Amino acid sequence: VKTHVNHLLAKTGMRDRAQLVGYAFRHRLVTG
User: Fold this and answer.
1) Which one is predicted more confidently, 6 or 26?
2) Boundaries of domain holding 11
3) Is this structure's pTM higher than 0.70?
């Protein structure tokens, strides 16, 4: 999972996991 997260961070240009989570929620990539 960690590697996948790092790949997403690099792909999206996000600096940290918090930004990535916010991005995911805004784009409905995460549910719950």
Assistant:
1) 26
2) 1-32
3) no
